[in-house]
Design a protein that fits this description.
- The chain is an all-alpha fold.
- The protein folds into 2 domains: 176 residues, Cobalamin adenosyltransferase-like (Hypothetical Protein Ta1238, Chain: A, Up-down Bundle); 29 residues, no CATH class.
- The protein contains 6 helices and 2 strands, in the order E-E-H-H-H-H-H-H.
- It has a two-stranded antiparallel ribbon.
- Strand 1 and strand 2 form a beta hairpin.
- The N and C termini lie far apart (59 Å).
Length: 223
């Protein structure tokens, strides 16, 4: 149970902090980096959910995701233990399954992509792309923590590892945010990346590929 009676404590003024298991570590610890990026992503989604043009079904999904991101941050801040005295809050597989369901629900109606998307379009779409990139950063930081601590419970007095399902959640969340950014950008029109846009293309296959990107009616046979 969380009970916040005073926000400032002065305990972190020396560059140290405590994890959820009350063990002390540096504020530069990769675990702290990872859940800090998760917190940043959550704050950014808070900006997204107040956008007036955000469809209500997407707003409901993101509100749910915001709560789960707090779960994810709590998980990352709590080293794995073999026999914890109480059941810790962890990201579990149904969290990831739910994200995959939303990916299918919102992604299936979208037109196929012929190239990568340049972030932009509407403000809401751009913010969702930004949130996606922050979540990717959180995932990378989480894997950096795995490089240090592994994914196994603590043993012989050593530090516990990181729950890989928390990182799987972040990976799938970045996919969902990409899809939602696409959905939000349909009305304004998506701007596709044209590789080497200012270069002259002479090779026939490359010309066909550019034509498919810059002229949607030129689909071709993919050869």
């Amino acid at each position: 149970m969380v009970n916040l009676t005073r926000i400032y404590t002065r305990t972190g003024d020396a560059g140290r902090t405590r994890l959820s298991d009350l063990s002390e570590t540096a504020k530069t610890d990769p675990r702290v980096e990872a859940y800090g990026h998760v917190d940043e992503a959550n704050s950014l989604l808070g900006v997204v959910v107040v956008q007036p043009d955000l469809p209500e079904p997407v707003r409901e999904v993101l509100r749910h995701v915001q709560n789960e991101l707090f779960d994810c941050g709590a998980d990352l801040s709590n080293p794995l233990a073999a026999d914890p005295p109480y059941e810790p809050l962890r990201v579990i597989q149904p969290y990831i399954d739910r994200l995959e369901g939303w990916c299918d629900e919102f992604g299936d109606p979208l037109p196929p992509l012929r190239s990568f998307i340049l972030p932009g379009g509407s403000q809401t779409a751009a913010l969702l792309h930004l949130a996606r990139s922050v979540v990717r950063r959180a995932e990378r930081a989480g894997w950096a923590a795995v490089d240090v601590y592994g994914t196994e419970p603590a043993s012989d007095g050593g530090p516990g590892g990181v729950n890989p399902l928390a990182l799987g959640y972040l990976n799938r969340l970045s996919d969902l945010l990409f899809i939602l950014a696409r959905a939000a950008g349909q009305a304004a029109g998506e701007v596709l990346w044209v590789p080497g846009k200012d270069r002259e293309v002479t090779e026939p296959r490359a010309r066909r590929q550019r034509s498919r990107i810059t002229r949607p009616d030129q689909i071709g046979d993919g050869s």
